[in-house]
């Protein structure tokens, strides 16, 4: 590695990072580098051997590794540089990165523009404060997924899964395929935290029980998990006395949420949204620090890999334009604001001048499920800009509202755009 200055550097090679690097190269960045801590490109997709990837991008239903390989091939064809088995130790606001690996030792790399695409990590037992002893046999669902799908190890024979996140439900099916017994899935909330399709295809189709408003009260076992004590919870998520039940098992999997991986972002001074735990970004996924972009699950947790890819493409284009001094800076800014029953909106701001050229997708999650037809409506300066109808709205399923160029006249001045999701 002789070149220590790049037009665009991308940290992370999951779907967001691969797309960002490809887009940067296709939009004029001559020297592009991907830094990846694993020994191969692809990120989390490499352990997601189930189908469901690429329906929107490729109009095909692909397993994760196949989806990743299409972009990995483009990276090679475009002669984008890669640094594998490498860790970024530090980043600075002026886009310097200090990296280390076994061959180079510690090196400094300067980037004309930087794209963070580190993805997210799973919440652990410590973060949700599960009581009980500390035996072997308590793992996150993603850890079990890697063991089974990549390493070829079975983490147990008899499982309870806490949390109805997508990885947990998918692993319930995967473990059943391998001959394990999944006793049940417990969810503390009164609704799914993952996609309905995964509930149907992974739990209902295999007769795996789901208990809403339930949690693990206690883990039982010394050297190895022997059972868990489950219990129902009330509206304040407090244990309901008398509802306890002992469920024998040898393994407890946790699928209790994901956290964007933003330690490097914070080092670089990027402003973090306390709701999403990801960066504040505009429609180009430009952060609060000039020249630093952020894309994919490091911004907010997506449902579909196709949307992560689209975010990466936008971030990569923005990074390439910045590195070439072509990224337009406007004095007009429209801020997005979460309105009725909306938890957050990404992007946080957008340039109305860009809307004249291309549609801007607003992506959000609701606070509470509405199991009835709803309106998703954007309002600016007291006037409705656009709205669309949906059959329902659920926290586990992202809502997208596209602002199209034909509404650009609503944003001739700076202002605030509020999105409300209400029952029809």
Quick synopsis:
The protein has nine helices and 25 strands.
Written account of the structure:
By secondary structure, this protein is an alpha/beta fold. It folds into 3 domains: 5-121 and 259-327, FAD/NAD(P)-binding domain (3-Layer(bba) Sandwich); 124-256, 3-Layer(bba) Sandwich (FAD/NAD(P)-binding domain); 335-423, Immunoglobulin-like, CATH 2.60.40.10. The protein contains 9 helices and 25 strands. The chain has helices spanning 15-26, 64-77, 125-128, 141-151, 166-177, 196-203, 263-267, 305-323, 352-355; strands spanning 5-11, 32-35, 81-83, 87-91, 96-101, 105-116, 120-122, 138-140, 158-162, 181-187, 210-212, 214-220, 227-232, 245-248, 251-254, 258-260, 292-294, 334-338, 342-346, 349-350, 360-366, 374-380, 383-390, 399-403, 415-423. Strands 1, 2, 3, 4, 5, 6 and 17 form a 7-stranded mixed β-sheet that branches. It has a 5-stranded parallel β-sheet with strand order 8-15-9-10-11. Helix 4 packs across helix 5. The protein is globular, with a radius of gyration of 22 Å.
């Amino acid at each position: 590695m002789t070149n220590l200055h790049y037009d665009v550097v991308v940290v992370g090679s999951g779907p967001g990072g691969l797309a960002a690097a490809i887009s940067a190269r296709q939009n004029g960045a001559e020297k592009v580098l991907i830094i990846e801590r694993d020994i191969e490109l692809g990120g989390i997709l490499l352990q997601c051997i189930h189908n469901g990837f690429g329906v929107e991008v490729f109009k095909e239903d692909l397993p994760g590794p196949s989806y990743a390989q299409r972009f990995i091939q483009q990276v090679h064809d475009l002669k984008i540089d890669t640094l594998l088995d490498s860790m970024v130790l530090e980043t600075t606001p002026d886009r310097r990165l200090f990296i280390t690996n076994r061959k180079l030792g510690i090196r400094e790399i300067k980037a004309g523009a930087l794209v963070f695409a580190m993805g997210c990590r799973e919440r652990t037992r410590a973060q949700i404060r599960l009581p009980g002893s500390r035996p072997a046999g308590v793992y996150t669902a993603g850890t079990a997924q890697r063991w089974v799908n990549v390493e070829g190890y079975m983490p147990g024979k008899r499982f309870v899964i806490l949390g109805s996140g997508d990885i947990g439900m998918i692993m319930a099916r995967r473990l059943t395929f391998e001959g394990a017994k999944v006793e049940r899935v417990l969810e503390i909330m009164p609704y799914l935290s993952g996609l309905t399709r995964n509930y149907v295809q992974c739990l209902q189709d295999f007769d795996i029980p789901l208990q809403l408003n339930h949690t693990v009260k206690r883990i039982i076992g010394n050297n190895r998990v022997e059972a868990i004590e489950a219990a129902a919870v009330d509206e304040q998520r407090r244990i309901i006395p008398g509802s306890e039940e002992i469920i024998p098992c040898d393994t407890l999997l946790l699928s209790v949420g994901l956290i964007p991986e933003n330690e490097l972002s914070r080092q670089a001074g990027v402003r973090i949204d306390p709701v999403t735990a990801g960066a504040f970004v505009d429609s180009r996924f430009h952060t609060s620090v000039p020249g630093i972009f952020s894309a994919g699950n490091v911004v907010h947790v997506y449902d579909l890999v196709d949307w992560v890819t689209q975010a990466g493409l936008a971030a990569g284009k923005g990074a390439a334009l910045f590195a070439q001094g072509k990224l337009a800076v406007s004095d007009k800014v429209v801020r997005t604001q979460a309105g009725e029953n909306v938890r957050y909106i990404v992007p946080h701001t957008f340039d109305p001048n860009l809307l004249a050229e291309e549609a801007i997708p607003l992506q959000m999650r609701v606070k509470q499920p509405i199991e009835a037809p709803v309106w998703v409506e954007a309002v600016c300066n007291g006037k409705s800009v656009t709205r669309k109808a949906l059959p329902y709205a659920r926290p586990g399923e992202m809502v997208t509202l596209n602002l199209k160029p034909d509404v650009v006249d609503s944003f001739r001045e700076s202002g605030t755009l509020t999105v409300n999701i209400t029952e029809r």
